[in-house]
Structure formats: structure tokens, C-alpha cells
Design goal:
about 400 residues; Ribosomal Protein S5, domain 2; alpha+beta; binds alpha-D-galactopyranose; 13 strands; about 20% strand
Length: about 400
Amino acid sequence: MSDVSAGFREVYGTDPEGVWAAPGRVNLIGEHTDYNDGFVMPLALPHTCRAAASPRTDGKLRVHSGDAPGGVVELRVDELAPVAAGGDRGGWAAYPAGVVWVLREEGLLSGAAAGGADLHYESTVPTGAGLSSSAALEVVTATALSDLYGLGLAPQHIAQLCQRAENDFVGVPCGIMDQTASACCTEGHALFLDARDLTQRQVPFDLAAKGLRLLVVDTRVKHELGDGAYANRRAACESAARALGVPALRDVPAERLETALKDLASLGVDDTVRRRVRHVVTENQRVREVIERLDADDTRAIGPVLTAGHASCRDDFEISCPELDLVVESGCAAGALGARMTGGGFGGSAIVLVEVADADAVAKAVTEAFAAAGHRAPRIFPAVPSAGARRL
Ligand code: GLA
């Protein structure tokens, strides 16, 4: 692993004041539920975005990434403007710039804190793989600046600020899951989050102790329709909630699903939107089932719930793709306990729950199925539940 402090020295010619890290994530269950005020259950990966940083006093924000070409991006804190308002997106630099913008907008930058900062990043979170490399970049930035400026921001507050940076500065209408996972996860746990009131519970998820492993399969494909489709799914859910007269689809309990679907049909709401509703309502229920099974120390029993979640993402929410479906089919056929796509969909990664003893055979079967279908070889690695953002 390259030394991020050395990288900082090379770029800026001085030692950084500190080094921080924030992880990527996979989501165990609860997909496209966060912006419906529902439940999610992510866990942090050992892969992190690391930032070496020092404060400045002249109002300049300088950012540099060891992973992106293009050298140092220099911006002025007082001139930062959202991308939609004509601000310069500057590629990856829009994420850290958005974080500084939101701190400024929230009145958290005054006095010395308005002076800017130098940051150098290095990341091991695969990009474009649906593993929240952008959330890791945002959260490591906010965590570093909170410490550098003595802002004392709590992890959940950092997640909310970073979500606002992504929504309002970068212009991506994401929910709160990824930033919360990166900021708040703890080693050996999955994080149960209620996306409405932001209450959290760290749920023990020590797979190794149970002879189990969670594989991440990065399909290395990213289908282009993803961005517009995310906003489209979100709009469909919000319109259905309005039609049902509830604040969010979270407010439709599983017992009321059939009635709600009939009500929507009689209001002339089309079959596609009704299937979106069915996904969200049943997915929230699946999060509860996974929690119950983990609380009962019956980890193997979550497998079928994960696979059912995939079917719902594929058929009702229509956010899967042939490569993700192939991971689930070939993984389960080779003996996995359960598998599903994870994250926003349309490519990216899937997770596969396996007995440790079967892990290699399942990984081999998935890789062979990809080769037989003419897909690029997937990248497969274990998801070890890891710590959230921290100073190193
Ligand atoms: C992306 C978004 C999250 C969440 C997931 C789907 O990762 O950033 O907020 O909506 O998709 O569960």
C-alpha cells in the first residue's frame, strides 16, 4: 500500500497535519429503500479512501488524487458553486468541493476554518463498481476537515452533510445509506439504519466465526442508463406515495400491500409503478427478516432472503442486468446460501453468501459462467465487515 503522507509531501512539499480514512460499502439487504424512508443494512469494506490533509489560511482549497490524472485542482472556498448552478464539476474534485461548499452553506466555516485546505487522496475502493467510492471520498473529506478545523461533527451528521453535498452540489439524487455506512459502520457488524429517523443499530455480523464468507463479485460493468433510471425509480416511488396519501412508501406495511396495490390500480396507476411499490414494501420486510434471523443467531437462514431480494430487484424494480443475474444464478447453482445485487444496480457488484468450505468452488463457478457468456472476468473478494471513517 502506498504511503498517502509521502504522496502529500510529493505534491505539496510539506508534511500533512494528519491522515484519515473512510471505507466503501456493500449493502446486505434493503435496496432503494433509503429514499423511501425505509430500512437498510450496509457493512463497510476494508477498502478505503485515505486523505492526507493540512489547513490553509488563504481561502484556497487544493485537492489532488493519486488515482486520477490531471494534477492539483485549485478552487476558492468562497467561490464554490453547485454544478447545476454553473459551478465547475471538475470531475472527481466535485465531491470534495461539494463537502467544503456544504460546510460553508451550513455556516460551519468561519474564522480559521474559512481559510481552505490542501488534500491528497489515495483510494483502494474500486470505482464504478457500486461500492460507494464517492461516498468514501466525501466522508473522508468531511471527517478530515471536521478534525482540522475542530468542528467536532458526529459521524451521522457528517453523513447528512455529505449526502447534501452529493444531492445539491454534484447533483446526484442519492439517499442517505452510502454516506452513513462510510461514516458510521463498525468492525464485525452490519449497520441497521432507519433512514427516516436515522436511528442505528450495530448488528454483530462475524461471518468467519460461523464458517461463512460474504463474497463481493464486481461485474466490472456499468450500464449507462443507471443515472437517469435512479431518478426515475425515485420519482415513481414518490408519486405512488402521494397517490396513496402517505408521506413515503415506508408507511405501507407489508400487511397492507395488497390493499395498497388495489387502491393504486383503481386510481389508474400503471402496473410498472405498482411493481415498484411492491419491491419497496417487500424489501423493507426482508430487512426485518434478516435482522430477526441474525438476532436469532441463524446467519445461514438469511441466504434465501437475500436471493428473494435479488428477484424483487430484477423483476419488480428492474434495476438488475444480465451480468448481475448471472452471478446470482451461477453462485446459487454452485452451492451459495444466497446472493443478490448490491447498491444502485445496472451493473456494479453482487454479494454471495457461502460456506467457507465452498467459497473457492463458488467463485470458480461464477468466473466460468462469465467466461462462457463472453463477459469480462469478474473481480471477486471477501467482504470483511470493517470500521467506518477514522483518523489514522
Ligand atoms: C445508491 C444510492 C443509495 C441507495 C442505493 C440503492 O447506492 O447512493 O442512497 O439508494 O443506491 O439502495
